[in-house]
Amino acid sequence: xxxxxxxxxxxxxxxxxxxxxxxxxxxxxxxxxxxxxxxxxxxxxxxxxxxxxxxxxxxxxxxxxxxxxxxxxxxxxxxxxxxxxxxxxxxxxxxxxxxxxxxxxxxxxxxxxxxxxxxxxxxxxxxxxxxxxxxxxxxxxxxxxxxxxxxxxxxxxxxxxxxxxxxxxxxxxxxxxxxxxxxxxxxxxxxxxxxxxxxxxxxxxxxxxxxxxxxxxxxxxxxxxxxxxxxxxxxxxxxxxxxxxxxxxxxxxxxxxxxxxxxxxxxxxxxxxxxxxxxxxxxxxxxxxxxxxxxxxxxxxxxxxxxxxx
Length: 310
Description:
Strand order of the largest sheet: 1-2-3-4-5-6-7
Number of helices: 6
Oligomer: single chain
CATH class of the largest domain: Alpha Beta
Largest sheet: 7 strands, mixed
Order of helices and strands: EEEEHEHEEEEEEHEHHHEE
Helix content: 25-40%
Structural class: alpha/beta
CATH topology of the largest domain: Metallo-beta-lactamase, Chain A
Number of strands: 14
Number of domains: 2
Distance between the termini: 26 Å
CATH superfamily of the largest domain: Ribonuclease Z/Hydroxyacylglutathione hydrolase-like
Radius of gyration: 19 Å
Shape: elongated
């Protein structure tokens, strides 16, 4: 039986104003809905006396005004970026110019991998460079709140999550989303790293996840009553199931990625098939490295693949 991920797409978007999520957390939703962002980028404001902003979002003047209005008289002192996709980090520059807040992130786009190849990713915000480069386990603190940095490469090579110790709340960016599974696309995405990062989260005891897209996982705002750790365990099982499906496709003679996607994702919106193809390719890259799949030369999205003889 295929593994079913209990996603929640019942979400009533509220744009341009702050929605209270907890005593310390509010969310402001950017009006940038798409098949990849769901209803848009959820920017989080954490704190009361002084604020940390997580994932300021796309370069959008209306969203900037909404964030500043939500902050009110409380100064924004920290800007935390989970990763450098165009729907997460570009507004950091304008928000910093308005507030003087420092930006915090693992590093610029592709900073773990390095090299020119990361420029091939159209969604990458290559202009972003953080003021403060953070690493796994680093603390980020303000009045009344304290974060632990949790490094989760995979979706991108510079993906960083933030754990709010004061409320056992976790901000997973795009590493874990409640409305859909995560796209892991080469060249900057890495399926092996993503699976390892997911496995790390199964060892944590966070009470609620606040993804950048979609509704929370766990906590009082999760209408499905999901447990974050169990949800992540299901994601791990789902990814392993996808690898089994790839092997089954090859056993049936389906040896090209577009044909695999058509077979494996027949029940999802066809507009998402290009994103699905990216994740299938990332699976295949890892599987060719493990010699579970063979191909001629380096693996390519346009290549043909086969099972080892015997």
